[in-house]
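Below is how a single chain appears once it has passed through the pipeline. First comes the sequence as given, then the structure the pipeline wrote out for it. We keep one example in the README because the format questions we get most often are answered faster by looking than by reading.
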Amino acid sequence: MTSPDVPRLPLSVLQPFVASALARHGLPQADAEVVAEMMIEADLHGADAHGLFRLARYIDRLKAGGFNRTPDIRVDRSKGGLARVDGDSAMGHLVVRRCVDEAIARASDHGVSWVGCHNSNHAGAAGVWAMRPVPQDMIGIYMAVGSANHMAPWGGTEALLSTNPIAIGVPGGEGGPVLLDMATTNAAYGKIKMAAALGQDLPEGWMIDAEGKPLTDPAQSGTGTLLPIGGPKGYGLALMIGLLAGTLNGAALGRDLVDFNADDVTPTNTGQSILVIDLKALGAPELFKRQVDQIRTELTTSATRPDFDAIRLPGDRALALRSDRRANGIPCPPVLLKSLNQVAQDAGLATLEL
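Resulting structure:
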């Protein structure tokens, strides 16, 4: 979590800045604005390793030709509530937004929908996409193949799986929605990259070396592997998400996966999937949301252990952060500001001032 005394910049400055930087490197203005909006959403949710922090990396790949600047993003297979989107190697935010919006439309017609994609790219924070259907009184369940292999199969040493995240957004009533957003590893790789940028050691339990010993130096992360949540259970979950978000869509998995962090030009063929359920197909959405509130109250008012000050639901912190950051701006620590101003200099834009 970012320290509360870190200076902030408002959305009214950051979102146009990101869009302008992307547009200066050849992304059409309308697409640049969509990517900027969805990147900023990651920061609003507190997923700082998936928002502004990624801008320089995205631009490196954009300049090298690793993203298709003028893609034909289209549905190439469909039947009823099912569809597959060909992302045509576009920036992942554009591809996944098309998938989610397609899924919302199909769920409106069929009650439930499943839309996946291939030929996509890294698309930021999973929770952003799971929450997109929620204002329409729909549940969103999003899964993705991560953008580089950092996890070994349980008991192995070769990195053959990624962090393969899953996020679930559920509408709620007065208490607000419920959001689960998690990697299948103890830490997402973006947190490793951020720790390296901030000069911080990794906690034990995040990574191990080839001998199974704790790896705490993020500069050595390339020599180790991330640990799955719950040991073999997390490994199994990562594999199944990979099959549903990758293999089912004709996207990459296993040794076919391209390391987005190290390769600027090879098409990544990233896969993502979104399942959307329309509450209206099963009953009155307001009744469901009241029941969610009731469950929330039962859980949060139940007895706590001595070392806990409160009981919270998944997503409470992220959604509270979103309200705070929309009103008060996004924290910009020195390492992030330096990176953004290098982007500004390269693109011929005015630098950002705190």
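DSSP finds ten helices and eleven strands in the chain.

See the next section for the split statistics.
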